[in-house]
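Incident review: delayed structure delivery

Summary: a single-chain prediction request sat in the queue longer than the usual turnaround. Root cause was a stuck worker, restarted by the on-call engineer. No data loss occurred. The affected request and its eventual output are reproduced below so the record is complete for anyone auditing the incident later.

Affected input:
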Amino acid sequence: MEISDEEVKAFIRNYVNALKIITEEKRQIIESTDIKPWFPIYFPVKATAFLVERGIFINFDRSDLFDISVKRGERPHTRSSWGEFILYPRFARIKDRAVEKAESDVNYLLSLPNLIEEHEQQMQSYYEALWIEDVRYTAEHYVEFLSKAIEVVDKTKEVSIQDLYDMATVIQRHLSNFEYMLLVGCEALNRLHFMINSDLETSLFLALHGKYNSAMAILRKVLEVNIRCIYLDSLQDTVEAERQLNDWMIGNKFSKTFRETVIGTADDPAYQSLTNLLKRLNIFENESFKQSILVLYEKLCVYVHLRPLSSWDEDLTLTFSEFNPDKWHKYYLTFMKVMKIAEILLTAKFPSVTTTPSLGDSTKTYEGLQLSKQELEAIAELSAS
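Output delivered after worker restart:
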């Protein structure tokens, strides 16, 4: 489409002159709007028209003198704050209607706030309706997706009812032993006993529904809290122990690392004597008790921090939960070992737990989570000596 430089200059000249008159009349209204004009509102200006393949780029810049230049086959390196692109077919229709275009541009600018408000109201109504429907759809389908976990529960009970019974029994016994923490002077365990029990229930709940890795992550917390509580309750300085406990419970970092806590709970000879006894009782065969605590903690850390646990293909399967007998069995063994360690260390550090009668008229003493009365008494006797 052939367009002469003079046609372009004439259009721009008429457009700018019309804008100058209109904007002067409506300057206060234009400046009060939050929308930035795309056409000149301050004059004089320098107009540069770039005639490219499909149309005309027009850049307007503030200048001391009104000036128009036309450039062919060259694109603007930058767009000025006032500028417009006009396709050649459209330019052919408006080249003799520059004044009308100026009026239309100003009027459209001034009408935009109302148009935007109306559009936002329409879109709000639209999205509210869409949101309600989307919420309903998402909730219904996601609940259906989660219902897969119920199948896992049924399968777990069918295949591993004995494992489930063993862990549920440990949780029930742990809860019923609450009063002994208070009676033997375990202030930290006394205050955190119900939280530990809640974490055990949550961990088992997750594993029962097929969320084995998350269940394992909670077992690390159970092990950590038990060991730290026993460490604090073992401190001779009860005032310092109370201070550290309070700091820890309000969210401050614990005073020692887990390794330092384990090492500080008993000296090496005590750990070695306990290891030898546990081997004789076939509780921890051929394994250092202190080392078994540290190794188990390191293994459980894998489930808390981002480290490879399975192949990416397995991680990316779109299944909420799925029964896995190997993972379930590994979880079961880990659960029982965590609680066995806590039970052994408690009895070793507070041997009176095996002889202290419960509150009231009953003569019942601490009930073993996994260890028999004879095994608990043997550990207590070793520690007392």
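Verification: The CA atoms of residues 169 and 369 lie 8 Å apart.
Action items: add queue-age alerting; document worker restart procedure.
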